[in-house]
Amino acid sequence: MNNTRIEKMLAELARVCKPLGEVQIMEVCGTHTVSLFRTGVKSLLPTNVKLVSGPGCPVCVTSQGYIDAACALAQRPEVIIATYGDMVRVPGSAGSLADRRAGGAEVAVVYSTRDALALARQNPDSKVVFLAVGFETTTPPTAAAVLEAGRAGLENFFILAGHKLVIPAMEILLSSGDVPIDGFLCPGHVSVIIGSEAYRPIVERFAKPCVVAGFEAENMVEAILHICHQVADGRAEVENVYGTAVTADGNVAARTITEKVFTPGAALWRAMGELPASGLDLRDEYKSFDALEHFEISIGPDVCPPGCLCGEVIQGKADPADCPLFAKTCTPMEPVGPCMVSSEGTCAAWYKYDRRAG
Questions:
Q1: What is the domain extent for residue 196?
Q2: 19, 81, 269, 317: which has the fewest C-beta neighbours closer than 10 Å?
């Protein structure tokens, strides 16, 4: 990390922002939220530059109805749930997957879709359901797993589709007009897949700067400076300061495999409702791997826990400190909402790095 360069950029940022009013920048990615705290960048910014979190934590945006469906599947004696770790502790309307596991259900934490496939191979008399959540970064591995299951004739492997797309969520937030957003700090991981040019519609339709950044302090400060320069100049452009990993076109091969298996469809987001073309459904030729169809279940309504402001937090409408439950009845040990569960959750980041705000 080049501390001298960071200091120079912070000085320039202060100069650029001095004549401006409040500049509100949304970091779309949960990893950015955590990194901004962890590196100290958040505390070094000018007082009129405010960072707000967006719907970029995959666990946080997963609806309670999805969690309830996963818990219902876990209750079935023939089912093994395979999931990434953060999903285990997210509360549903009647408990979490951790509660189901404590009651005897088989819930396996996996670190890749290969692990889920291995479970299916090792347990031919069981039905393995992989909880397929996450944004464009984690979708290609799910698609690859479905294709591999098809080639291998694994008839006991299924996915509970919950993948989501970043750009439609950004468009919905801007269209609603509920949250003043002056620019976006765009996610590095997702942008590796979709490419920086994917944000062009945001710039052209809404005239909001979009700058792609990595997760080191120097790169994030550089991106914030670029956004504020654009705001000061009255410009809106797509810029990429994470050129070591992100290209304009992204990872075409990864997108191709995703498009082979999935097709865009409406998706239910926590507290945001059903957003058109914001999720991914299995194509007809791969419907045999769809847990909803195989087990003849559906994803129910999204009901937020009383008093929990996770829905407002992931839309930039509230800070965790605004929630009456934050750091009181809602803690990482006893979370009420998903934003306190996930390692990328805004509430968890505030609790760990800035609990005084609560």
A1: 23-58+171-240
A2: 19
